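Review form for a predicted model. The reviewer records the input and the model, then writes brief findings.
Reviewer: anonymous (R2)
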Amino acid sequence: MRIVADSSCDLFTLDYEDFITVPLSIYTDKRSFTDDETLNVTEMLDYLAKYKGRSYTSCPPIDLWKQAYEGADEIFVMTVTSALSGSYMSALNAAEMYLEEHPSARISVIDSLSTGAEEVLALNKLVELIKEGKDFETIDQTIRTYLKKSRLFFSFFSLHNLSQNGRVNKAVSLALTALNIAVTGTATAEGKIDVTGKARGEKKSLQTLFKDMTAAGYKGGKAIITHTENEEAAVDLKKLVQETYPDADIKIVPTRGLCSYYMERRGVVISCETE
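Model under review:
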């Protein structure tokens, strides 16, 4: 079995040999950044922080997805939420083309309805199921159910890039940055961004994340924390969760290019299992 994901998953490797990531891209009117192993995230963030023009992202083309499928008979594919990107449809179209050429192959294209940390959580679960020897259909059904029971929560201190691509009012973005206020929120069941509140300062923002995840049904299960150049806050959030749930399995992952673009510096996301 092969696992394929777009670069919104924030991973380059899994505890599984046959894993491939397909890069999304970040554009301005003057430069482009491909979210692969060669990308210098710090340099990209420095450039975008100073850039005053339009910026936007682009999903992987169909041919890149199809290349990632080549040579495999059973493939699980995971993409960033279709509510914010065309990556899912591109992966799906590539799967249809691949199956025309390889009719005996099986491909499951999964819309994560999320990104980053929640994808990491689901991909790790996928590896676990494969190593347990589960069959293709069982894995497919189990991972889709698992995603419905996991949640994602975020804290962003900058909305500069979101304002530059027209998703957020620029005046609101400037005000939040000046006042050291974080926007907190969650990914909805439909895969959209839902801003649920604001928190002044890092400590308060992390407390809000923990409060939101426990309110959603977290009881000490697995969790993934992703961060954009803010490992200290990620560690503090892990400690905060483990004060209540000492045995909680929590891993910290730095973001790749796409999630760094949207989260920006100081951004922290946590995804967790719920009951």
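Findings: The domain at 2-26+58-149 is CATH 3.40.50.10440 (Rossmann fold).
Further findings: The first strand starts at residue 2 and ends at 6.
Recommendation: see findings above.
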